[in-house]
Amino acid sequence: MPITFTEEDFNLKTTSHNDAMVIKALIAGWTVGKVLVDTGSSVDILFANAFREMNIDMNTLDPRDVPLLGFGGKPVKALGKIALLVSFRDRDNARTEHITFDVVEMHYPYNAILSRGFITKMDTTIR
Q1: What is the pTM of this model?
Q2: Residue 52: in which H helix or E strand, if any?
Q3: Mean pLDDT, rounded, for 10-32
């Protein structure tokens, strides 16, 4: 059963929008707020401050040699990558998948960014 986000999830006053969708997700057993769903992103990002708050050992990160592009047009070197379980739940529907995050050390208004690959993997519909 696909997970569907509707206008109600966007919490908007009108139906026409191009606002970002910011949600909560259960990542590695932690409820993480300020998660941006970005259909323009090709990489799932977990920001280092959130990663540290989750008490996951930095030594568990796999090396990431290729810099990421798109943060203001400048390349950003990831601290590493890690596959974590990500879950979405409501009383009628739940879905959990392994998502590979690149962990990035930078200040950003979000704790994580979920990409278009995540949307496809989770069989998510945004209407």
Answers
A1: 0.79
A2: helix 48-53
A3: 72
